[in-house]
Amino acid sequence: MAETLPVENVTKIFKQTSRYKHTNIYEGPDGSFYFGIWKVPTIEENPYDTFYTVKFSEARRLEKIAFMKYGNVNLWWVLALANNILDPFSELSEGQVIRIPNLAYIISQILP
Q1: How do residues 63-73 score in pLDDT, each as one tens digit?
Q2: Which one of 10, 11, 97, 110 is at 20 to 30 Å from 24 when CA atoms are compared?
């Protein structure tokens, strides 16, 4: 588990006027830094999940699939988490089959 940076280090990264100055920042084991904005949820498999084969025009475009399946481009991250995709630009290609988590489950269990 990564450690939270001390506040004095955060202010070195962001200006005092930055909207991010109170955001938790973590240092990974490799020395890289990342935001600690939220705890990443686990998206359990559900019997109501569906599967989808990515088309050529959707490769590298999780937001297009999210819009088609959920009606909301902002839910692209649900697809990424459910399919262990860290980088859609290199990990999402034509012909790939991905799991589409059930929207009712996402709304009731994942979204605030």
Answers
A1: 999 999 999 99
A2: 110
